Amino acid sequence: MGRIVGIDLGTTNSVLAVLEAGRPVVVANAEGQRTTPSVVGFSRDQELLVGQAARRQLVLNPRNTFANLKRLIGRLWQDLDEASQAVPYTIRANDLDQVRVLCPATEREYAPEELVASLLRKLVDDAAVYLGEPVEAAVITVPAYFDDAQRQATRDAGRLAGLRVERILNEPTAAALAYGLDRQRSQLVLVFDLGGGTFDVSILRIASGVFDVKATSGDTQLGGNDFDQRIVDWLAEGFQQTHGLDLRRDRQALQRLLDAAEKAKQELSGTQQTLISLPFIATGAAGPLHLETSLDRSTFEGLCPDLLDRLLRPVQAALRDAGLAPEDIDEVVMVGGSSRMPMVQQLVRTLVPRDPCQSVNPDEVVAIGAAVQAGILTGELRDLMLNDVTPLSVGLETIGGVMKVIIPRNTPIPVRRSDTFSTSEPNQSSVEIHVLQGERQMAADNKSLGRFRLAGIPPAPRGVPQVQVSFDVDANGILQVSAMDRTTGRRQSVTVQGSSNLSQDEIDKLLAEAASKAEDDRRRRLLVDRRNRAQTLLAQGERRLRDASLELGPYGAERQQRAVETAMADLRDSIEEGDDRSIERYAGQLEEALYGLNRRLSAERRGNDGNGPLGAPLQGLRNTLGTLRDELFAEDDWEDDWDRPAAQERGRRRERPADDPWGRF
Ligand code: ADP
Ligand code: MG
């Protein structure tokens, strides 16, 4: 099995980790950052931007910049709460009630999976440069509390990014894997993961390499964003009282408010008070208006009591489901950026009488765990075993709209369970199987995962036919359902295609489109690269000519110097004319000419080491020039192909600036 990377695909930030020599390490992206903002956008001229580049244009180009996509993935419009709908870009429901993201720059609408795929693509492309090999497979983490449709959508995003998704792994389980990797002592661990948009709690028993998830609970629509929103509302309402203007109605102002609110929130984790200043936030009758205020921690905490309350129930539910009392927990592992908020830490202390563990990095631990899981799958890490559970009950709708649970929540996975059902009418020839997920009694209150029909049941009085329905939940937490008529042996099996998911046809179409676009993109990038490369070569040529005339005199290596000059002139002309073919040709010629000149220079230097034809008196001067030359190259030697030993190639690639044309495929 080839290499598998681990990806923490966060609402706010994503992180990629790999195993190197059996140890998990986080891989920095092309910008040199260990976390990549989960933001995708398009510039005004339709260029795809991912990560920091997209984040930078959030304020200036809010309609074409998409953050918090994870809150949308795998969900129907009707599933979205108000906070998830209130994004600065445009989302809408299509005919099937699926969520679509509108992008004015490209005049297209996207399924959230497609945009998430671009993010995954960037993460693995950057990792491929670091690893020096293509990345084709990944373990991707999801909130433990993600339902079937959300898991499938995440897997689809991976497929759209051209990846084999070897495992969908629960985030808190991943965190526990990372935490427990080097700990032998048997203990009960509660993982509390509050990120930007989701909240997860899991309880695990860790004992010498065996990780047993006991229970999991959470809220997939609760995270740091909700706390930001409280500050946004507080700011906007204050402003409205003074100026009679609702800033939330202006996309750009809203995005600036969101930015300022998040910054203020983060600062309040360390200080008691923070200043918020947004000059020129709007224009009133009398000219520009500014927002200037201060927020203290207690006011902020006073804005969010109900959000804190929503953290209580999942913790208590997980403890109850695991059959444990709070005192039984040996360690609390806090994960996710929002777990840094003092009010959150305080709340956790009142729930579990332990000081939270400080030894894990809340931003990276999930990706590290994903890399560990990847190592288990490839066999690189032995003696580790992971037993996870289903987060939510699955079952089907029976007579009277009641949900009959087939696999209760917190059942260890993979698992297969079946039950037998019958008809409710005489001579009923088919039954509809409506698959549901959730904890409510009535079918209508739970998430519908899909419906299918088993037909061809022979005529019989009601209650006589026997239809056996089987549910399989695999290690990814993804469900497959089959039904069999016991009398005829007729069988119907489906991977429940959530109504919020892309169909196989749509996925194939998008993949084909991506492949054809990739060719276009590649060609365009090749052109840009070629021109950049030509410019770099020209700069190099100038430096070498300068060296040559300093070291050898103006005509010291006349043939080689002239060759470089001619090739440079030709290359300049072809760049001016914009003729890509001749750019390629003359760049090649210039490379060759430079090679010749370089050889001549180094031969000259070797020959002149103390006893060359120029004799001793000039030696001091030549050495000075040599040093000068070394300094010149040291400054920008990443663009210098000549002096770089091949062995340094890989190490160097990691450090290249993002806009370096040579560092890209
Ligand atoms: P996700 O897993 O959802 O991508 P992260 O774990 O990266 O999320 O956490 C991102 C969230 O954490 C954001 O809402 C961010 O504002 C919040 N956050 C980061 N640092 C702090 C801090 N010091 N105090 C409060 N919140 C923080
Ligand atoms: Mg996270």
Please count the beta strands (DSSP E, at least 2 residues each): 27
Bound molecules: adenosine-5'-diphosphate, magnesium ion
Range of helix content: 25-40%
Q: Kindly, what is the distance between the CA atoms of the first and last residues, rounded to a whole number of angstroms?
A: 24 Å
Mean pLDDT: 86
Shape: globular
Give a quick account of the main beta sheet: strands, pairing sense, barrel closure.
Answer: 6 strands, mixed
Percent in strands: 15-25%
Rg, Cα atoms, Å:
31 Å
Structural class based on helices, strands and sheet pairing: alpha+beta
Number of helices: 16
Pick out the low-confidence regions: 610-665
Reconstruct the topology from this structure.
Layout: E1 4-9, E2 13-20, E3 23-26, E4 36-37, E5 40-42, E6 48-50, H1 52-56, E7 65-66, H2 82-85, E8 90-93, E9 99-103, E10 108-110, H3 112-131, E11 137-142, H4 148-160, E12 164-170, H5 171-180, E13 187-194, E14 199-207, E15 210-219, H6 224-243, H7 251-267, E16 273-284, E17 287-296, H8 297-302, H9 305-322, E18 331-335, H10 342-351, H11 365-378, E19 385-387, E20 394-398, E21 402-407, E22 415-421, E23 431-437, E24 447-454, E25 467-473, E26 479-485, E27 491-495, H12 504-552, H13 558-577, H14 580-607, H15 619-636, H16 649-655
Parallel strand pairs: 1-11, 11-12, 13-18, 15-19
Antiparallel strand pairs: 1-2, 2-3, 2-4, 5-6, 5-7, 8-9, 9-10, 13-14, 14-15, 16-17, 20-21, 20-23, 22-25, 23-24, 25-26, 26-27
Bound molecules: adenosine-5'-diphosphate (ADP) and magnesium ion.
Adenosine-5'-diphosphate binds next to helix 6 and helix 7.
